[in-house]
Amino acid sequence: MRDRSQGAGTGPGASTLRSVLPLVLPLILTGCLSYEEVTFKGITNVEVGKMDQSGVSARVTVTLDNPNTFKIHVSDPNVDLFLNEVYIGKAVLDSNIVLDRKSVKDYAVPLHATFDDHGTQAMGAMLTAALTGKATLKAKGSVVGRAFLLRKRFPFEEEHDFEWEY
Q: Against a cut of 0.85, is the pTM above it?
C-alpha cells in the first residue's frame, strides 16, 4: 500500500512546479483571454413578423465583426425599441446569439417587444409606417457578451431606416 503521508506533489519536481506555476499561469490566461471589441457593422435587414395590439415580433439581421479567437455568447438584453421616434417597448431575444470566432458575419436576431401601456402610440407609429412605406427603427440599450467565465455588458445605440412592407 502507498503511504498517504507522501501525497502527490512531493516528488523532486514538485517544488519547481509550485514556484513556476504562479509566474506562468497569468501569462497563459492573459494570452488566452485577451479581448478585442466586437464591431457593429450595420443592420442589413428588418423583417416584421406578427403584429397586434399587444406587441410585435421581428427578425433583424445585423453584421458583426468578432476579431477574437473565441466565440462570444450574447444574451440578457436591456433594449428599448423606437419606431419613428415613438417608444414601442422593451426588446426580448427569442433565442441566444453566438458570435463565431474571428469572423465578420450576418446574424439573424429574432426578437419581440410587448407594448405594455404604449399600445396606442406603438400602433399609431406602425400605421404611419405602413401608410408611408418607410420607417426608422432605433434600438438603445445594452446586451451581455460572455466568453468562458468572463462577462461584460455592452451599451449601444443604433438606428436603421427601412422600407415598411407588411
A: no
